[in-house]
Amino acid sequence: MALKSSGLSLAAQPPEEENSTSRVRVLNLTSDSFLKGASSQEIIAQRDCSSGSGGGVGYNESAPQRGPTRGGALLILVALAESVDALLREYVAAPARTDAVELRLDRLTDSDLTPLFKATGKPRIATCRSRAQGGFFGGSEEERRAVLKRAIDLGAEFVDLEFESDDEEILGRTDKSRPLLSYHHRGGTPLNLEAIYRRMAQRSPEAILKLIPYADACSDNLRVRGLLHLARAEGRDLIAFCMGERGKVSRILARAWGSWGVYAPARSESTTAPGQLLLDELEEVFREGELHESSPLTGVLGHPVSGSLSPLLYNRAYRELGLNGCFLPIDAEGVAEFLPLLSDLPITGLAVTHPHKQSFATHCDELEPAAGAVGAVNTVVRRWNRLVGYNTDIEGALRPLSALMDLRGAKVGILGCGGSATAAAYGLTRAGARVILFGRNPQPSEAAAARAGCTAQTWDKASSFRGDVLINATPVGMAPSPAESPLSWEKARAEIAFDFVYNPRVTAFLREARLAGARILTGDSMFLEQALLQFEILTGRAAPRALFEEILSSQLQGNDS
């Protein structure tokens, strides 16, 4: 499958030169011009000049603007609480790096909003989200609108009004509060996304539009990007990204694509939508504030990927080594739904995980010999217009086991017949081990065994396996279902039990094995070894092993029992 070249690499790049001649107009938060039509860049300037906070634009008129691609798109803190006092504490404690705060009023149990709008601080977006739009407000629509009107009367800088509801009666009567006209669609990404945008745009020429669909497929992220490009071409302020696990790509890249803002809570308790990333994740892990449309991208492709530590590991390493770009979590149920992203985004390489290791191999233009032999890839790089596939699972499985035992003549059972199982079987067979693959379906099991040069047996025989090593190469037991185990150790026996699942560190499979008298080998040992090789292939740089070990230790230390 030949793809157009991104022409990019992850090599360290010098920062873009800032335009030292650009000037930011400082506005008064109480002026009509600000409230009715201020750009996000001007809001940031006002924020920094009035509060003295660091980051972003500086403190005076001659301060340079943020990057030319992203402009001054806002990082918006989501504040959610049940009491005014608690919500006020979140507002006052808003980190300096945020540009505005969304005050979620729909969960409040008390009614006096005055303290929230008397306090000085960052610009406020007053939101009282209905349950129909995914919010928490339990009263009538008339009561909800009364809350919004009260926020306007108290001087909210922005007010969120729900599209095609009676909230539109407030449009044109928001006084000094600039309206956001919002639409949230949790039933998937509508086919008529542009038509909805057009209807919204006709309602109010001054409103910031907010259009948030739910991603059914990871390719829906591109539809949102297209909408942002359209709005930018028309000079329209639009907030757009996708909800859901498959929509995280658009959240991370929203401001790089031209969204007027992106939302993030500081605490998990303040999460208001599926797939929402925490502020520290968005800024510290993914460094989304540094991204532009041309920033080189890598990522982990799988389903699910929510439990993967790869984004944390790789993004921290990129920062330490001074590498440009971002490592994304890319959730796709099938490879086909991901291919449009591969064609349209500056993706330079991928880590490929369950269940796509075998299917993605068929999309590669070239496979290194071991990957070709096992018919599975876990690492893919784009070299000009060609995809080259590698398999680092082979060494990832061999190295930890070789450190514990002589593999020559060892009897090894492997649960599963997917890409990881086949790679491990291939490596172990060549190291002299006698390997048996146990699969639920005879045809793929036998095909995998033929590739690896070993034998296959039916799944039911695994429960009575007796040998030196028994490996779980299935995703069973992985978070978010850590209580599950692929096999009961009632009859099975092995000297060493090895689980390729690494989160949680000690799985139900390993706990039962230990009770049955086996030594256990945790999946983080394989993950580490394959990741070190993978990182070098993706970046051309040696991986920071000490950093990888430190992160894995800190993230998995609570899973030892």
Short description:
With 561 residues, the chain is an alpha/beta fold. 33% of the residues lie in helices and 19% in strands.
Q: How many individual helices?
A: 19
Backbone CA Rg: 26 Å
- Spatial gap, N to C terminus: 45 Å
Largest sheet: 8 strands, parallel
Strands, count? 20
Q: Which runs of at least 5 residues are low in confidence (pLDDT < 50)?
A: 2-9, 11-37, 47-71
How confident is the prediction overall: mean pLDDT?
88
Features:
single chain, 561 residues, alpha/beta, eight-stranded parallel sheet, six-stranded mixed sheet, 19 helices, 33% helix, disordered N terminus
Provide structural commentary:
- By secondary structure, this protein is an alpha/beta fold.
- It contains 19 helices and 20 strands.
- The protein has helices at 32-37, 40-51, 84-92, 114-118, 141-153, 193-203, 220-233, 248-253, 279-285, 310-321, 335-344, 357-361, 369-374, 393-402, 419-430, 442-452, 508-515, 523-539, 545-556, and strands spanning 74-80, 100-104, 124-127, 158-162, 178-185, 208-213, 238-240, 261-265, 297-302, 326-331, 347-352, 366-367, 379-383, 386-390, 411-415, 434-439, 455-458, 466-472, 493-499, 519-521.
- Strands 7-6-5-4-3-2-1-8 form an eight-stranded parallel β-sheet. Strands 10-9-11-13-14-12 form a six-stranded mixed β-sheet, sandwiched between helices. A six-stranded parallel β-sheet has the order 17-16-15-18-19-20, sandwiched between helices.
- It is elongated.
- The two termini are 45 Å apart.
